[in-house]
Amino acid sequence: MWFFRCPEITFGEDALGQLALIRGKRAFIVTDPVIEGLGFVTAVQTQLCEAGLESQVFAEVEPDPSLQTVRRGAAQMLAYEPDWIIGLGGGSSMDAAKAMWIHYERPDIDPEAINPFEELGLRQKARLICIPTTAGTGSEAGYGIVLTDTENARKLTLGSPEATPDIAIVDPYFTAQLPRQVTADTGIDVLTHAIEAYIGSWANDFTDGLCLQAMRLVFKYLPRAVAYGHEDPEAREKMANAATMAGMVLGNSSVALAHALGHSAGALFHQVPHGRITAVFLPYTLQFVANGEAGRFGDMAAALLLPSRDETEAADSVVTAVFQLLDQLGLPGSLKAAGIPEDQFAEMLPLMVEHVEVDANLLMSPRIPHTAEIEKLLQYAYNGRAVDF
Ligand SMILES: [Zn+2]
To answer: Pick from 78, 138, 284, 377: most CB atoms within 10 A?
Structure first.
C-alpha cells in the first residue's frame, strides 16, 4: 500500500489572489527579514485583508532554521491563536512554518521528535498555506522539514505526512526579481529532487511522470531563468512550476544519496547553500548507482533526448548533461571548486561520513554505500574525479 499526497495548488500569474478567497479569522505569517524587506509580506497581507483576516508576522527565520527559532515562533502562535499558518519564503521559512504549526497544534511534541510514524492529529487549530519565493526547495508541496541542531552542527531531516500544506500558492511574481546566483542555486535543486526521486527505491508510477517533466523543464528553462531573470517571465513561471512538481515527488517518492551527502556537508560548510552543495554530489552519486540494468537511466536519457543505446551509454549521457548544466549555470562541479578548503575537508571527513550513515535519505538510494564507499564518494566529489568503483 502506498499513498500520494499533495496540497491544492494554485499556480501561474496572479495565483496570490487565491488568498483573498480563504475563510478564517487570523493568519500567522512565518518568513524572514529579507522577504519582509522586499514587500512580499505586505502583498500577502493585502490579500488577507480583502478576505477579512487579521494577521501577525514572524520574520525571524534564518537560513537553516534552528530548533530554537521554531520554539520561539510556536510560542507566538500559541499566544495569537491563528486559524491559518502561512509559510512565505524559501525552504527555510516554509519548513519552519510547518514545524511551528506542529508545535502549536501539539505543544507536547518537541520539534526534534517530529517523525512520519506518529499520528499528530493536526488541523484542530489551523491549516497551512505555503507560498514559495524561490523556485527550488519544493517545500510548498511536501511534508519534509529540515531543521538544524545548532548545538551539535547537524541537520535534522524530519517530517510528517500530515504536515503536507493544505494549499500551495505558486506565483511567479515572487521569483521574478530573484538574483541570478539564487536562481541557479535553488533551480538546480529541482533537478536533484527530480532525478533522485526517479531513480530512488521509492519511485512509483504516480511520481515518475512528474519527475521526468520536472527534469525536462529544468534543462530547458533554468539556463534561461538564470541568464535573463525577470525579462523572461515564461522561464520564471516554468521553473516555479517545475519546483513545485519536484516538490510533489519529495514526500511521495524520496530524494536519496546526493541529499544524504549534501545534508552532511551542508551542515558543516554553511557557506555553500543547500541546492549548490547537493547538486555537486548529484553526478558522482549517479555514477555510483548506475548499474546498467534497471532501465531508469535509459528512460531519463530518452526523456531528455540524450544518446541512450543502452543503460551504460544512457547513464554516461545523463551524467555528462548534469555536469554541462552545472557549468552553464556557473555552479561548481566539485567540492573543491565550491570553495571548501582542503584542510577543512580532510578534518571534517570522518564526521561527514558519520552523519551520512544516519541520514534517512541514504536508505532510498538504489545502491547503498557502506562506510568506506561513503568516504570515497566524498573524496571523489571533493576532487572532481570520476567514480570508478
Ligand atoms: Zn534539495
So the answer is: 138
